[in-house]
Each structure stands twice: as C-alpha cells, then as structure tokens.
Amino acid sequence: MTTPTLTHSPRARVPLNPPRGWFAKQFDRVIARRFGGSADPLRAMWHNPRVLRADLALEAGVSRFRTLPPHLGKLAEMTAAIRIECDWCMDFGYYLAHADGMEPAKLEQVPTWRTSDVFSPLERRVMAFAEAATATPPEVTDAMAQALRADLGDAGLVELTMLVAVENLRSRFNSTLGLSSQGFSESCRVPTA
Predict the structure, then answer these.
(1) Mean pLDDT confidence for 106-110
(2) Which domains does the chain have, with CATH numbers?
(3) What distance in Å separates the CA atoms of residue 96 and residue 171, rounded to the nearest whole number?
C-alpha cells in the first residue's frame, strides 16, 4: 500500500485549516504520519475541542471491541456509510479495511452486495442488518436479529449494533459538514493498465 496523496474536501461547511496551538499541531502530525495526511473530520472537530475529545474517547473504546470478527464489522460499517452516502467514510473505510487485510474483491463489491457472489450468507446477513439499522426509522426485524444472535451470540449482535450506530454517527457528521473523499482508498487500489 502506498502513502496516500490526500486532498481536502472542497465543499466543507467549516474551514479545514491546520489546527493552532502546540498540542493540536502535534496531533495533526501524528495523524498525518499514520495515514499519510490530515483527516478532514478531525480538522473540522478542532473548532470545538470538547467534541473532538468526546469523539476520540468514543473511537478509542470502539477500537477495543473484540467479539465480532473484524471483517464483519468493516462490512457493516461500509454498508452503513454507503446507505448514508458518506463519501469520506466510504473512502477511509476502504483504506482501513484494506490495511486490515480484507480481500479487495469483497471491498469493491460492498456497494453491490445483494447481487455479488463474493459474500458468504453470514456476511450478507450482517450487511442486510447494517442497512436496516441505518434506515430511518430502523427496519431491523425480529427474524434478522434472531438469525444474527444464532450466528454471533448476544455479545456479537450487541457489538454489531454498536458498530453500525457509531458509523451512522460518523457518516452523518461527515456528510452534514460536506466532507468528501480525500483519496485514502486510491493508495491501496491496483492501478489499471
């Protein structure tokens, strides 16, 4: 995977200028080193440091989830981001899932998961659940929940539900503020001839 060449969201509804202050600048550099550039959602959140701290605490907690197989969580998150049409989340989600070793064929087929033949029945149930949980109002049925309880157990279903809810928060925040793809996913795609 190459280092991404990132751009900033041209239609952002808040300025995405570099943060000011020693800590903010150091934090921005850490993110740039880890991901190849600054992340627009964090730059937007610097306008309200309490929001940023709350988000970082939430994301730190979510990063410690271990019940659900990671690839199922990534598929659920990407499905929710697609349903909300969050370009930034789809871009960054692809990048993270690729970095975690997910098969590129599956990543590329998430938008067409219903007709694609690369997903297992369990993966399809997870993506259907993510889509239904993202709908407003949620469209999760008892049958969906029961099937996933049988597959994942109670703890797995609760974790899956929280991952979808957190992705809804991310996607709605980012798309509402006009944050778009920065080019993260381009660094891990195979160039065409």
Answers:
(1) 94
(2) 22-63 (no CATH), 70-176 (1.20.1290.10)
(3) 15
